[in-house]
Design a protein that fits this description.
The complex is a heterodimer of chains A (112) and B (296). Chain A has 112 residues and is of the alpha+beta class. Chain A has one domain: Orthogonal Bundle (Arc Repressor Mutant, subunit A), CATH 1.10.10. Chain A has four helices and four strands, in the order H-H-H-E-E-H-E-E. In chain A, the strands form two sheets. Chain A has a two-stranded antiparallel ribbon with strand order 1-2. In chain A, strands 3-4 form a two-stranded parallel ribbon. In chain A, helix 1 crosses helix 3 and helix 1 packs antiparallel against helix 4. The N and C termini of chain A lie far apart (29 Å). About 7% of the residues of chain A have low confidence. With 296 residues, chain B is α/β, with parallel strands linked by helices. Chain B folds into two domains: 114 residues, no CATH class; 128 residues, 3-Layer(aba) Sandwich (Rossmann fold), CATH 3.40.50. In chain B, helix 8 runs parallel beside helix 9. Chain B is elongated and about 65 Å long. The chains are: A alpha+beta (112), B alpha/beta (296). The interface between A and B is medium-sized, with 25 and 18 residues.
Chain lengths: 112, 296
């Protein structure tokens, strides 16, 4: 089943920007039903829009991308009391988490 | 087997690999047929430390599709020396397969029709194309089978070209030549092998055993052992073995049949000489360059 519209456009872009910013796995998007070619397209769109760039062999968010992310958070009306479900972050240290994040461990980190 | 995570940059690198290799990225939703999906599914199962080698091997992976077969055959054929071809009256082209099926031990008078071998597919592609463009094409004859030429073949004036898509370790070719050379009409002066792709070890093995020459378009060396040296070679072999362990590939396929370390898939099928990390699959784990149609 195609799940092109798993998220609305703004939410999807926010998730993509957060994935780029925090350099975490794309599995969140894949597990939401997006195919790899679609996710690749989302990433390339952000590069084309200059919200992300390749730097020293890494994909990083730009200042414009940060601004875009903030704008999207406002548009989606996400406040501090609401939670944005973030993708798996097992490769990142916990200090990147803040109060609005929910940590979803990867499968091999679960104790059961 | 637990899949590992994949970072955004890795996805972009794989997309670049597909672009560089001119591999299609289909917008197909079925993972079983989309090469891009299958490739990433395989990549995600590999430990992060081993992924660099997987990508480097993929960069050198040769994928030949059906629509390329005839032109590659033609290029391989054109590598045969003109004066050599000119010296024969007839040029017979047959698939590199066992000439006869031994039914001595079969009580029933019936025998199941054997599956089509890749050499037979190559011959079919020759027949389907306008092979009159080939040099000395007026001499070319495509007999139905070996028995057709056994009597008519003139050992002084005729040439037999045995065609296949891939020469790996050379063992299969040597076994077939053993059978054909039982008829004293056939020898290394009037039999040659023509393949689209050939591993150096196989070509040498055939020449060492039978003094038969092999012509091909794409020569291939062992993907790891002939490419890396010294300490890096040891490290890369370890990484390759680690990938095989991660995918629980049976040890008999370690580095491919005969440890050929091939990197090739022809007509949507990898020979067993290809590194199994590219073709080994199970019901729960799909491979980018499959070998079997049905999952084992």
């Amino acid at each position: 089943m195609e799940k092109e519209d798993s998220f609305n456009e703004h939410e999807l872009r926010l998730r993509v920007l957060i994935i780029i910013e925090k350099n975490v796995s794309i599995d969140d998007l894949y597990n939401s039903g997006y195919k790899y070619f679609q996710i690749t397209k989302f990433l390339k769109n952000e590069i084309s829009s200059k919200n992300a760039e390749l730097k020293d062999g890494k994909l990083v968010i730009t200042d414009k991308g940060i601004e875009e992310k903030i704008k999207l958070i406002k548009q989606l009306d996400i406040n501090k009391n609401e939670k944005i479900v973030l993708p798996q972050m097992s490769s990142k240290s916990n200090d990147l988490l803040n109060i609005t994040d929910v940590f979803i461990p990867s499968e091999n980190e679960l104790p059961f | 087997m637990i899949k590992k995570e994949i970072q955004p940059i890795e996805l972009l690198q794989i997309e670049q690999l597909f672009q560089d290799n001119n591999w299609e990225i289909e917008q197909d939703i079925d993972i079983r047929v989309s090469l891009f999906q299958k490739f990433i599914d395989r990549y995600e199962r590999i430990k992060k430390d081993d992924r660099d080698l997987f990508i480097k091997l993929s960069e050198r992976f040769l994928r030949i599709q059906e629509n390329e077969v005839y032109s590659i055959f033609r290029d391989s054929y054109n590598k045969i020396y003109d004066d050599y071809l000119e010296s024969f009256d007839n040029i017979y082209i047959l698939p590199l397969v066992e000439p006869y099926i031994d039914i001595a031990d079969i009580e029933s008078k019936k025998i199941a029709r054997p599956k089509i071998k890749s050499g037979e597919k190559i011959k079919l592609f020759i027949e389907l194309n306008e092979y009159r463009e080939l040099k000395f094409s007026q001499k070319i004859i495509l007999p139905d089978d070996f028995s057709t030429i056994e009597k008519s073949f003139d050992m002084e004036k005729d040439l037999l070209i045995l065609v296949d898509d891939f020469i790996g370790s050379g063992k299969t070719a040597n076994d077939i030549l053993d059978s054909i050379f039982m008829d004293e009409k056939f020898n290394s002066s009037n039999v040659i092998i023509l393949s689209l792709v050939a591993q150096e070890i196989g070509v040498n093995s055939i020449y060492d055993k039978h003094k038969v020459m092999t012509f091909f378009k794409y020569p291939k060396k062992r993907a790891i052992s002939d490419f890396y040296h010294g300490e890096e070679l040891n490290q890369r072999i370890q990484e390759s073995n680690s990938m095989e362990d991660t995918m629980r590939i049976p040890s008999k396929w370690n580095l491919g049949y005969g440890k050929s370390e091939a990197l090739v898939s022809i007509m949507n099928k990898s020979p067993n000489n290809t590194l199994p990390i590219f073709w080994y699959e199970t019901k729960a784990m799909i491979a980018p360059y499959k070998r079997y149609v049905n999952y084992k």
